[in-house]
Write a structure and sequence with these properties.
single chain, five-stranded parallel sheet, 7 strands, globular
Length: 400
């Protein structure tokens, strides 16, 4: 069963005691005369109320589109299959409508439809972390409000607000970064791979799910956007990015402290545009590679946050929790990496992230009833949605 993900956003505080309402009877019981009315005060209050009403009516008439709090225009359009024009749409047999169902409001106004989506980043993270599936491998239903499925042009608009996006983690996050590349290259057949260095036979073997599941294919995984921009045009099967103004990179880590060479790579990205006001977003995750060691995870958080602080740049962090264990998890790993261990790791590391003022996104509920090919990792139907969740988080960050 899915579990409620703990909410870390602050709720409005409600007073414990309310002052009793003053009534004529209460005045008499206290031996007081009824307060006398002040005609001048009443006239001023009436004029103020009338002016406020007029301003509200004028504001309402001047707004033609529903207000939103994410950073791209709200599109008044029904969700279609965003993969229709993607390379591999037919071969891989995946439609976006198979893995994402938007909120249903066929007779609602644009404003009402918009209200079904999460109004702010805190509620968005709660919704994506705390939802569930109505059946094995059914599309995921977030809790309380919805995240969006953005088209490729919309994703580019979101990324343009950043100097760079850094994925920092182990193989679980690597697969999400692979899906991130599939979306930006509009290629779910080979979009996660450096296909310019592959033979025809290798590309045929590594299509679709095999990009993520076969070890010989993982050797060709894209690790940064620059390599695609520099080399893809030389390939006989070119698959360029739809947009490539914002660099992104995957930095593999499986311990803390990480090797100094990785610190150097991370810091060089932070200092690439010293005078820019744009933020550099970091998506951070370690789990199975460290055997779910809590001290290693917290040490890793402190390690990379410290490096980011030294840069004096605006560097928002998102901590991503581990996937749930699939039913093919080897019996020898059930005790150390089973769902009990994974759930407690999810909860405690989210708390540690929140204590460091980092955002946290849980993946436990999202993967709990999803099909895993080995009990630890998941295929395209899962990682494509995970990549879109991270894009939703990016869309809610401040751009300065």
């Amino acid at each position: 069963m899915a579990y409620p993900f703990p909410r870390f956003s602050s709720a409005p505080q409600t007073p414990q005691y309310l002052k009793a309402t003053e009534t004529p009877s209460s005045w008499q019981s206290r031996g007081l005369d009824k307060p006398r009315s002040n005609p001048t005060r009443w006239l001023v209050a009436s004029i103020a109320a009338a002016a406020l009403t007029l301003l509200l009516l004028l504001a309402r008439s001047s707004v033609s589109h529903p207000r939103q709090r994410d950073r791209i225009p709200f599109l008044n359009a029904d969700v279609d299959d965003f993969f229709n024009h993607f390379e591999g749409r037919q071969d891989c047999g995946i439609a976006s409508t198979d893995i994402y169902i938007p909120p249903h409001a066929s007779h609602a106004t644009d404003k009402e439809k918009h209200s079904l989506y999460c109004p702010n980043r805190a509620k968005l993270l709660d919704a994506m972390s705390g939802g569930g599936r109505h059946g094995f491998d059914a599309p995921y239903s977030p809790l309380g409000c919805h995240f969006r499925w953005y088209s490729t042009p919309e994703i580019c608009m979101i990324l343009d607000r950043f100097d760079a996006v850094i994925f920092l983690g182990d193989d679980t996050l690597r697969h999400i970064y692979s899906a991130f590349n599939m979306l930006l290259r509009e290629n779910i057949a080979l979009g996660a791979l450096r296909q310019w260095e592959m033979k025809e036979s290798e590309m045929e073997t590594c299509r679709c799910e095999n990009q993520l599941t076969r070890p010989e294919c993982l050797l060709h995984s894209v690790a940064d956007s620059q390599s695609v921009s520099l080399n893809d045009a030389a390939s006989g099967h070119s698959s360029p990015y739809y947009c490539h103004r914002t660099p992104h990179i995957f930095i593999p880590i499986d311990r803390s402290p990480a090797p100094e060479t990785l610190h150097t790579s991370f810091s060089s990205i932070l200092h690439r545009e010293p005078d820019s006001y744009k933020p550099i977003a970091v998506i951070h995750s370690v789990s199975l590679a460290t055997s779910l060691a809590w001290p290693t995870a917290t040490s890793s958080m402190d390690e990379w946050v410290t490096l980011a602080d030294i840069s004096q740049k605006n560097v928002p962090f998102l901590w991503v929790g581990p996937n749930a264990a699939g039913h093919l998890k080897p019996p020898s790993q059930i005790l150390s990496q089973g769902n009990n261990a994974l759930w407690h790791y999810t909860i405690e590391m989210a708390k540690e992230a929140q204590a460091r003022q980092l955002d946290a996104l849980g993946m436990y509920n999202f993967t709990l009833q999803a099909g895993s090919w080995d009990g630890s990792f998941y295929g395209q139907r899962v990682v494509l949605v995970q990549a879109m969740m991270i894009i939703n988080w990016l869309s809610r960050l401040e751009s300065t």
